[in-house]
């Protein structure tokens, strides 16, 4: 099986790629991709930011059964501030000086005659779809395009009016299982009081996987301090509102406001990077050092201080690891769109 874009091996370890429950959704989507007619079909997943669209698409993309069904797979993220060229380069998995029309032609020739699966992640507009759709030939061989978006209009437009799959918020049992997996399974034994507060927190996260992931990062830092857990449980209930997008902002803001003062400017500095940009750690360290964000510590180099800051932000699930170097060091990192929305708001309020 050929692969234009291979997923990094560590992807499954990232907290945002932890999928709990949703077995029915997964099986249903797997069925849509692997079976059905021979004509090219666009299958869409719709849902709000942080609900797990990318996680589900990634799990489908790297499923062994899917890998055996398609000759070739390719994956690209579009983003709100998209650039056709970057999407084409992402799908071709290369860097090139060729003009866009030549890249589009190259992609079409590469896919022609082969049964392919293409994942187009996080597409925001019908114009973005119009700009790339002609690259995907219909060879009547069961090829599929899997699309994720927050916008139902985009999903229906791309899939010729076929109803998209709407990702639902998690129910209480799924929310609790996810929080349990991220905290209680990892951190050793907790007394029943912590489990009871954990259940309150899971309920108050409103079924949004991203909110649970972020809160789990916060709880893992606090450790077994019952009063702090209680305080977070009370704050979660204050910040949850009926509007899921605003709810998540408030849940994420809780994590931001809980950051130590030295980490806040480091976190807000991510506002200079583009949406979905792969952020290289060595570049980030240089920028932080120039800004004076890194306080010198006894017996530690500036790089070591920066690495500690990055690990702190990763542990709190505010950023995630993109790639490791051959030596096992974090080479690049990234951030979820909804988290990016949070720090842009916070940065504006400075």
Automatic annotation (TrEMBL):
Boundaries of every Disease resistance protein winged helix domain copy: 272-342
Single Gene Ontology MF annotation: ADP binding
Annotated GO biological process: defense response to other organism; defense response to virus
Keywords on record: ATP-binding, Coiled coil, Cytoplasm, Leucine-rich repeat, Membrane, Nucleotide-binding, Plant defense, Repeat
InterPro entries xref list: Apaf_helical, Disease_R_plants, NB-ARC, P-loop_NTPase, WH-like_DNA-bd_sf, WHD_DRP
Membrane association type: Peripheral membrane protein
UniProt keyword Repeat present: yes
Single GO cellular component term: cytoplasm
Family according to the record: Belongs to the disease resistance NB-LRR family.
Name used for this protein in its record: Rx-like protein
